[in-house]
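Summary for the steering committee. The consortium agreed at its last meeting that each partner would contribute one worked example illustrating the joint modelling workflow. Our contribution is presented below. We chose a case with several input lines so that the handling of multiple components could be demonstrated. No manual editing was applied between input and output; the record is shown as generated.
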Amino acid sequence: MQGALENSQTAAAHEAGLGDAHHGEHPDLRVWGLITFLSSEFLMFAGFFAVYLVFRSTIAEWPPEGTEVELLLPAINTVILVASSFVIHLGDEAIKKGDVAGLRKWYMVTAAMGAVFLAGQVYEYMNLGYGLRTNLFSNCFYLTTGFHGAHVFIGLLLILGVLWRSRRPGHYSAEKHVGVEMAEIYWHFVDIVWIVLFILIYVLTLF
Amino acid sequence: MVQATEAPTDAKLSLSALTDYSFPQKQWKWYDYFTFNIDHKVIGIQYLVTTFIFYLVGGMMAVAMRTELATPDSDFLNPTLYNAFITNHGTIMIFLWIVPAAIGGFGNYLVPLMIGARDMAFPKLNALAFWITVPAALLIFTSFLFGGAQAGWTSYPPLSLVTSNVAQSMWIVALILAGTSSILGSVNFIVTIINMRVPSMKWDQLPLFCWAMMATSLLALFATPVLAAAMILLLFDINFGTSFFRPDGGGNVVVYQHLFWFYSHPAVYLMILPIFGIMSEVIPVHARKPIFGYKAIAYSSLAICVVGLFVWVHHMFTSGTPPWMRIFFTVSTLIVAVPTGVKIFSWVATLWGGKIRYTSAMLFAISLLSMFVFGGISGVTLGTAPFDIHVHDTYYVVGHFHYVLFGGSVSGLYAGIYHWFPKITGRMMNEPLGRVHFLLNFIGGNLTFMPMHWLGGHGMPRRVAMYDPQFTHGNQLATIGAYILAVSVLPLIVNILWSLVKGEKASGNPWNAMTLEWTTSSPPPIENWAVLPVITRGPYAYGHVEEIPPAERPDLSDAIAMPK
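What follows is the complete predicted structure of the assembly.
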C-alpha cells in the first residue's frame, strides 16, 4: 500500500462543501488551460501559413496579376489591433487595483477597436474586386484572413461578455478577475497571429 | 492466477481508514452514465463502452472485407461498399476506438486516481470532449446513406475531391470533431498532471502511465491542429470551389500529404504511448518486481514524442520526395526505434527473475511484447527508403501496421481491461475465459497478419477487392484468421457481462499493486477518497517494504523505484 494517510486540510474543506460544490476544492486552472489550448490553436494557423509559404515559393507569379492585396487599409487595421492589445492590458491593470470603472472603460475601448478592425476587414473584402474562388492566392488570402477574422469575432464576444458581467456589483474585483485575464490573453493571441499573418500575406507581397 | 492475497497489516489499517463511512460512499446509478456527468470515472467508462461498440462495428467491416478477399474475384461486396469499408474501417479503429479508448477511457479513469486528485482539472470540458465524439461517430455511420467516404482513411486528393462528396464532407467534419475532442482532452490532461498531483507526489513518483499520458497529450496538442488545417482546406476544396489541392487550379496534392502525415504519423504514437503506459503498470504488478529503469521509461516517452514529430515524410517516400529528404527522414525514423527499444528492454528486464503471475492481463502484456516487437522490426524495414519504395502500398505495409496496432495497441487495451476491471467494477473477471480470449486472439492475430507480409513481399497491392489468383492461399489464411479474431471477442464480451453480475467481489487492491488508484475501494466512491492519500514511497517499490515495521523503514522511494 501507498503508506500512511493524513487528514489534510483540503479533505476537510472538501467534506464541508460536499454536495452543492462537487468540484469546489479545485484550484483555478482556467488560465493554464487557455494558454495550453491557444498553443494548439497557433499550430492550426501554422498549418495554413505553411501551405501559403509552399505555394508562395513554388508558384512563379505570386500574387498573380489582378489579385494583389490592398496595403494601406490593412496597415491601419494592424496599428489599431496592435494598439488594442495595450489598451486591454490597461483594463486588466485597472481591475487588479479593484477599479471596475477603469476595467469597463478600457474594455469598451478595446471592443470598439476590435469592431473597427472587423469592419475594416469587411470593407477590404468588399472592395478588393476578387473573391474566394478567383485563384490560389485569393483562396489562401480569404481563408487565412477569414479564419483570423472569426477569431477576432470570438475575442470581441469574450470582451463584451466581460463587460456584461462587470455590470453586476462585486463580480470582478482585485482578487477575482480570471475571466478578465482570459479575455485579455485570448486577445493577445489574436493579435500575435495577426502580426505573423500581416507579415506573411501583406508585407511579403512587396518583395 | 488471481491472488487476492491479504494486504499487509499497515495497509489494512489504511484501507479501513479509507472506507471510513462518515465519508459518503455514494455511487452513481446506471442512468448517470447516460447523462452529461462530469465525474472523470463516469466519463472514462462512457468512453470505454462506446468506443468498444465502435470497435465491434469496425471489426464487422474488417470481417466483411476479409470475406470478399477469400476469393480472387469480387463477388461478396460491391465496389462502393468495399471502398467505404476500407475507408471507414481504418477511420473507426483509429479515431473512434484506439485513440479515444486509450486516452479518453483509461486516461480519464486512471490519471486522477493515480495522482491522488478528486477529478480532472476541467470536468465540464472533459464531459464535452466525450460528447463531441458521439456526433463524430454518427456522422461516420450516417455517411453510409450517402455512399460512404471512398478515398481511403488517408483521403488523398484528388481522389477524395472527385468521389462521393457528401459522404466525404461528413467524414471530414467527423474527423474535425474527433480532433477537437482530442485537443480538449489533451489540455485537460496536461493541466491536470502538472497541477493536480497530490502535494506529496514528486515528478519521479508519478506512475509511468501518467508520464505516458503527458507525452501523448503534448503530441496530440501539437499535431492535431495541423490535421484540422488540412481537413478545413479539403472541405473548402470540395464544397466552396477553392483549389488548394486541385492540380487543375494550380494546387498541390503533396501539400495535403505533408499536412496529413504531420498529424497522422504522430497519431500512431498517440495510439501506442498510452498503451506503453498500461504495459508499464501491468508488468511490474504481475511480475512482482520494481520496474526496471523508471526514468528511462518515463523520458523515452518524451523522446518518442519529440522525435515522432520529425518522421512524417517516411509515409511519402514515393511522392517524389527529393533524396536529401529521404535520407533525413530515414535516419529520424530509425532513431524513433531507440526510445521504443529502451522501453521494450526495460519491460523484459522487469520480467526477468520476477515472480510472474500469468493472469489474463499479463498474458496480453506478453502477447503485446512479442507482436509489437515483430511489428516494430517490420517498421524499421519500412522506414528505410529503398525497401519502402519496393513494398509501398502493398500488403506488407498492411501486415506491419496491423501488428503494431492490433498486436500492440489492441492487446494493450485488453491487458488494461483485465487489469483494471476489478477496480472499475468491484468484481473480478473470469480467468479461464480470459485465457480462451487470449489464445483465440493470439492465434487469430498472427494468422491474419503474418501472411500479409508474404503477400506484400510478393507484390499484392493493398486496398483492392480483386487480386491475382496466385495470392489465393495467403489470403485464405488471413481470412480464416480474421474469423478467429471475430470469434475471439465473444469470450471477452461474455466475460465482462458475466463478471459484472456474478464475478467474485474484488477487494480494494486485488493484485497487491502500489500505485494510488489501488488505495481506494473498488469501485472508487465519488470524489475517490475520504482523505487524500500521502505518498511515502515510489509507485513500484515491490518486495522489500512490507515486512519492516513502519518506524524502521528506510526511505526506499529513491533506492528502489527511482535509481538516480
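Chain A has one domain: 28-206. DSSP finds six helices and no strands in chain A.
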